[in-house]
Fold this sequence. Notes:
Elements: E1 6-12, E2 15-23, E3 31-32, E4 63-68, E5 71-75, H1 77-83, E6 90-98, E7 107-115, H2 120-133, E8 135-143, E9 146-155, E10 159-165, H3 178-183, H4 190-202, H5 215-228, H6 249-264, E11 296-297
Parallel strand pairs: 1-6, 3-11
Antiparallel strand pairs: 1-2, 2-7, 4-5, 6-8, 7-10, 8-9, 9-10
Amino acid sequence: MPRSIWTGAISFGLVTVPVKLYSAVSRKSVRFHQLNRETGVRIQQKRVDPTTGDEVPYEDIVKGYELTPDRYVVIEPGELEALDPKKTKSIEIEDFVALDEIDPIYFDHPYYLAPGAGGAKPYRLLLEAMRATGRVAIANVVIRSKQQLVAVRPMGDGALAMSTMVYPDEVVDPATIDELSAAGEIEINERELDIAKQLVDSLAGAFEADRYRDTYREQVLSLVERKAEGEEIAVQPAAEEDDAPVPDLMSALKASLDAVKARDGNGGTQSKQAPAKQASPSKPAAKKPAAKRTASKQ
């Protein structure tokens, strides 16, 4: 059963709504440890001073901000503590805005807010008011000694969701990426655009989160399970790249559209149906927005 990771209150005007915070996602990435191939023993990571080769005790480690390579400003723990944001237990709403005014690039980590003791009625009132007005609350909150910009919105039949957000100066300006600037100068003719629009329409359908799975994670877990049971895995050689010429853009668009029409059998207008769910070697995940995550090494 999920456990709350923070308790506090939503504050808007003179109204206070006691709430509890729960993480809305449970990451399913496959994690590996580094082992000694010869002994099978897990490798330890040590903090070592490269100039002496000696391990540095934890109490002798301080934080340093790099000015230039090999030149740092040393910051003491007490100096940072003096700058800590005020540790309130309040989600202080500053504005109510329309959800479609927020670019998704600003959203970071999702949470659920549940009513705290005595907060069921004001919680429901705030939820229904935002649902009726089509508004999302933008607020500030301090979680784990870090000030966070957040968006609070109604979700589903009776829940408030809260997403932490990145600040504008943390978003990379796409104009600084040379390839994007060059792409904006390319001219597209009407015929190419018309076929591309037909292809998009032929693949259009309602968003159904259950249709999408992390197939790579499933394959990795299957591999682990088979090897744990003693199966020998034969690594197949990589297929050689085909030297066939790349079709021109118009030919590729037409071929793609024809393939979709042939698949659907009715000109590509058939609605896409969710494929049958396949068994996964891991526990089924709760419904949530699709998240991109791959296996990583520690």
